[in-house]
Amino acid sequence: MNVDIHHQDHILDGQISGVTLLTPISFEDLELTNPTVGKYNARYKDKSFTLTRTPFLIVRDLIVHAGITRNWQELFEAYRKIGSTYKKNTLRANVRGNIKRIRIEFRGIDSDFKEIVQVTSIGYRWGKPSKPPIDSPFAIDMVSVGNLELFPRIRHVYWKEQFVDLTCAEVTIIQHLASDPMEVCSYRKLYDAMRGVGFIAGRDGLGHMTNVRTAVKKLRQEFKKIDPLFNAIICKEGEGYLCAI
């Protein structure tokens, strides 16, 4: 795929600024051609069709970053002015609605279309997850400890070179634990990272401990799908957890 993944198209006043910069893109079975006025042409599995402006720009953003999780704001800015701010629920509903329309278009060609993957609590990704190159902007804040590789920018986690499918909260937990291996991270600190500082769960004020335990349990299950002997997250009863890598 011959595209510059650092390029961001600016959408101004409902129009594409510098439309000639939208070079044709081909990726696997999909091709997006250079749009002309009012027409956004695509070809998927040898079948041609036309998309409206917003779905075209979302699909383009997804395949330019194929394998990389795109968060709600990034996808929203693919078709709206960069820096546009809306209430979180409104923004997400807008993106979800457009993704739904895109899937309908593609399933009209291929009823088994599953290339657009929703990443729980984060956003969407085109195709299978892909580890960004070390010199990529997505790897600037990469954390590497033992067999663990974490890319906070895109919330990708790899264990023994294999992608671990985690939720946003689970990624947050492993990020905190891996940032200071062998040091206990308290239940309160982990919960604050997940939900916000000072958030109270449960009537007895200890609900945060239950919630963290549940999240860690699910996190371990995902790692064990890759490595049945995974035991790198250790519980210190009454205190919290540590990462023994």
- How many separate domains? 2
- What is the approximate shape? elongated
The top-level CATH class of the largest domain is Mainly Alpha
How much is the radius of gyration in Å?
20 Å
At CATH's second level, what is the architecture of the largest domain? Orthogonal Bundle
Helix percent band? 25-40%
- Estimate the strand proportion: 15-25%
Order of helices and strands: EEEEEEHEHHEEEEEEHEHHEE
CATH fold title of the largest domain? Arc Repressor Mutant, subunit A
Structural class: alpha+beta
User: What is the average of the pLDDT values?
Assistant: 85
Question: Characteristics of this structure?
Answer:
32% helix; single chain; 4-stranded antiparallel β-sheet; 2 domains; 245 residues; Arc Repressor Mutant, subunit A; alpha+beta; disordered N terminus
